[in-house]
Specification:
This protein is an alpha/beta fold. The protein contains six helices and seven strands. It has a single domain (9-177), classed as 3-Layer(aba) Sandwich (Rossmann fold), CATH 3.40.50.300. Helix 3 (98-114) links the parallel strand 4 (88-94) and strand 5 (120-126). The longest helix has 17 residues, at 98-114. It binds guanosine-5'-triphosphate and magnesium ion (MG). GO terms for molecular function: GTP binding; GTPase activity.
């Protein structure tokens, strides 16, 4: 447990849901972002798991409340509970797996129909460390993202590539809530700070 620091900041809370086929690395991305760790044998998610992570952008503290959902089909009907009132979604596919890219497109269509209309959506092509055996082309996914108004990055939960950056890009695109103005206490939780975190609230 670290010490807490008192900082004069604006606090914004956002609910983010992580979606995608099984085994694409959703939980691994969340582990990397929240704990700065990667496990070769990450347990499959049952239902959903909840995490929080706080980053700072200039004088704003952004607290992400993250729902990491299960990719297995048997949990599909549950997942709508998690995106229904989300402000942001990260839809993940595996760059080595064409079916997972198709599944990501299906999730995106479902989000457009059923999620809040102003939801910020990022598409993450994960396992970018395995780029030499990719089947989903970078340009194909980028074009799809542009045509559909999505943020897009290839990520690697294993190396950390673009993991903080994709959440930072989401935070920058989200409208300001300003739902908690004044001093806030930030308890460092041992996470690897993002560049933005290091410059927090100066
Ligand atoms: P479900 O919970 O079943 O939906 O799967 P998930 O999408 O949460 O995948 P998970 O994070 O459990 O990762 C599945 C496997 O992929 C694990 O063996 C991870 O170690 C591996 N993995 C995840 N991300 C990466 C990555 O960026 N690169 C590599 N090489 N392996 C990864
Ligand atoms: Mg999982």
């Amino acid at each position: 447990m670290g010490k807490s620091m008192k900082m004069p900041c604006v606090m914004d809370h956002y609910k983010v849901v992580i979606l995608g086929a099984a085994v694409v690395g959703k939980s691994s991305l969340v582990m990397r972002f929240v704990k700065g760790k990667f496990h070769e044998c990450q347990d499959t998610t049952i239902g959903a798991a909840f995490f929080t992570q706080t980053i700072c952008i200039k004088d704003t503290v952004v607290k992400f409340e993250i729902w990491d959902t299960a990719g297995q089909e048997r949990f599909h009907s549950l997942v709508s509970m998690y995106y229904r009132n989300a402000q942001a979604a990260v839809v993940v596919y595996d760059i080595q797996n064409q079916d997972s890219f198709q599944r990501a497109k299906t999730w995106l269509k479902e989000l457009r129909k059923q999620a809040p209309p102003n939801i910020v959506i990022a598409l993450a092509g994960n396992k970018a460390d395995l780029s030499n055996i990719r089947v989903v082309k970078f340009d194909e996914a980028k074009q799809y993202a542009e045509e559909n108004g999505l943020l897009f990055m290839e990520t690697s939960a294993k190396t950390g590539l673009n993991v903080n950056d994709i959440f930072l890009a989401i935070a920058k695109k989200l409208p300001k809530n300003n739902n908690n103005q004044g001093s806030v206490n930030i308890k460092p939780n041992g996470n690897e700070p993002t560049q933005a975190t290091k410059n927090c609230c100066k």
